[in-house]
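Let us work through a complete example step by step.
Step 1: write down the sequence.
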Amino acid sequence: MRAILAGGGTGGHVIPALAIAHELKSQGDEIVFIGTRRGLENRLVPNAGFELRLVQVGMLKNVSWATRLKTLFDLPRAMFRAGRIISDFRPNVIIGVGGYASGPAMLAAAAMGVPSVAFEPNVVPGFANRRLGPAMAAAAVQFRETCSYFRNCHVTGVPVRREFFSIRPKPPVSTPTLLVFGGSQGAKRINEVMIESLAALTTAIPNLHIIHQTGEPDYDHAQAEYLQLGISAEVSPFIDNMPEAFARADLLICRSGASTVAEIMAAGKPAIFVPFPCAADDHQRRNAEALVHMGAALLFPQAELSSPRLVELVTKLMRDREALALMGAAARAHARPDAARDIAAVARRVAR
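Step 2: predict the structure and record it as tokens.
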């Protein structure tokens, strides 16, 4: 089988796409990516050993009217370029993973009669998948609620590293550990409120240990505050081994992007979600709400985030080991360890 994976931009799009590509390649399939020069795919896809072909297209959501107009003018040229790639490679199926290049490639595929599969990790589909959903042959999603946007919808989950599924529940007698992160760039508001809360948190939970990924911009200030207070902590701009950090944590405070949510379910960890309020279509809030409904997480809107409330919430949870265990079990009950294999199977059925 010959397959094109179209889309990218952020790690949330590119990393699952690479997992799908590796699964297809392991089954002997030929793979080509369609992406843009500005997205992470421009670095990660060639480094993973896959061919990347480029189209030029911009953003339509949450940007100025000038940027939207430029994107609309670029769209026909991007579709033409994607069509040339499709004609040259002659794929049996195209998998749209969302992001800048996904729309033009999927539009070109629909016009050329090439069957396509939408991979949609968020509760609310991104712009391209939402608009093109009815034209797609199938969809692979993380949440059942998402199936209302697609026909022939399959709940496959999101591919995450196997190490997350190997994490075991923490023993009852261990150092209480809080893991805080806001994505690879950090989250300024989460960092600010955490620093404001340090003294009260460590008073309420005397032996608390904190693992805090700050992102580069806030690292120096945060590190200085932790050192000044003499708090047991590991502060870093970026955590290289996130599965190991998950394994040591009793509770997570984090954003609720699709990949983070999938990793939390795989690891079976309870979380307090602070959704990024400017995410397109408020999709992080919807992702968080899905886990709240599972009993696996709590939702803390950024507009309501304050030091007193955070201290109260974290203290209450960290003192209730049974509640943490139940939340973690609820998260893991919805994990899907074979997501990449199942998405590949959907693509193969569509191709046939």
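Step 3: interpret the result. The chain is about 45% helix and 15% strand.
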